[in-house]
């Protein structure tokens, strides 16, 4: 694919990942294995709120095609097929579920040195069409997103954003929820090896005059252990401890505290991802 500005979904992704990724609130256990013929198998079990569920997934790669199949505990099969370069500089993604066929979607992505475009349509009786366009370079990008309901003739969403990305930092501003919210974020790495980083995000919802300000960071204690933390102006404190127990296998322990109501029971999450 061309070395262009990236997809619209990449705008603000680096700060968002640091503030959300690995902050688990349930118990999750997964095992992954890889075969010599290019097939990867993953089995996942999740316990949340006293309920348990899980799925089994198989990922197969062959040349420019990737097939991802998941079977959950309710015997529902989800399949995603990704094919690159059917037309040069494009990626086609088809997803569908069995027996629930109403959740299908077809998406086409086009990549250029200075622009990317995507178009996705739901495969049902009342399809919603989503389109995005991003212009710029890998350093600075401007993008828009819109969703259109072909049945009602209404726009389901329209969003605009700008992203400034460097190896050591990333800043973005996103105007979303049909212009009702604005979110600005900034991420900075303090060293070239990206062992330590700080992030800040501020969002405002105009309809309710609500402001949310969140700061966070991560630090690699060594090549096996990383700690993360985040705190917002509503008193929510989140922490993450990650340790590589064996090569490519990670133990994650996360917690969330309400610093304005210390009498409340904190929430804890545990995750173990094994790669064999």
Automatic annotation (TrEMBL):
<keyword id="KW-0406">Ion transport</keyword>
<keyword id="KW-0813">Transport</keyword>
<dbReference type="InterPro" id="IPR001925">
    <property type="entry name" value="Porin_Euk"/>
</dbReference>
<dbReference type="GO" id="GO:0008308">
    <property type="term" value="F:voltage-gated monoatomic anion channel activity"/>
</dbReference>
<protein>
    <recommendedName>
        <fullName>Mitochondrial outer membrane protein porin 2-like</fullName>
    </recommendedName>
</protein>
<dbReference type="GO" id="GO:0046930">
    <property type="term" value="C:pore complex"/>
</dbReference>
<dbReference type="Pfam" id="PF01459">
    <property type="entry name" value="Porin_3"/>
</dbReference>
<keyword id="KW-0812">Transmembrane</keyword>
<keyword id="KW-1134">Transmembrane beta strand</keyword>
<keyword id="KW-0626">Porin</keyword>
<dbReference type="InterPro" id="IPR027246">
    <property type="entry name" value="Porin_Euk/Tom40"/>
</dbReference>
<dbReference type="InterPro" id="IPR023614">
    <property type="entry name" value="Porin_dom_sf"/>
</dbReference>
<dbReference type="GO" id="GO:0015288">
    <property type="term" value="F:porin activity"/>
</dbReference>
<comment type="similarity">
    <text>Belongs to the eukaryotic mitochondrial porin (TC 1.B.8.1) family.</text>
</comment>
<dbReference type="GO" id="GO:0005741">
    <property type="term" value="C:mitochondrial outer membrane"/>
</dbReference>
<keyword id="KW-0472">Membrane</keyword>
